[in-house]
Amino acid sequence: MSIFVRAFAWLLAAAVTFATLGPPGLRPHSDLGQDGEHALAFILVGLAFGLAYRQRRLAMSAVAVILIGLLELMQFWAPGRHARLEDFLVDAGTACIGFALAAVADWVMNRFRTGSALTG
Hints:
It is a single chain. Helices cover 78% and strands 0% of the residues. The chain is built from four helices and no strands.
């Protein structure tokens, strides 16, 4: 199953990259507003990568923050796009929240397994 989670994480990262750097007209829009859309996208990216790379979660979160910064800077060269510090802060912060949620999910599942083993 790990290969599927990793594939999903990378596909999600590719989709977010396209939405960030692609033509503004092809970017999906929702009622969440710009910050809400960014938060949802990057919390999902953090969660997916946090579940896909459990053994290297801390290193992956640091790499994610660096790559999110690079992605934001690349918008200087993307027509119709603009780099903003606020976007970077929302994106990096929510990606880290996603990684933290993955850690909590692992912790809960381990506690559940340990509890089941003791009672069963």
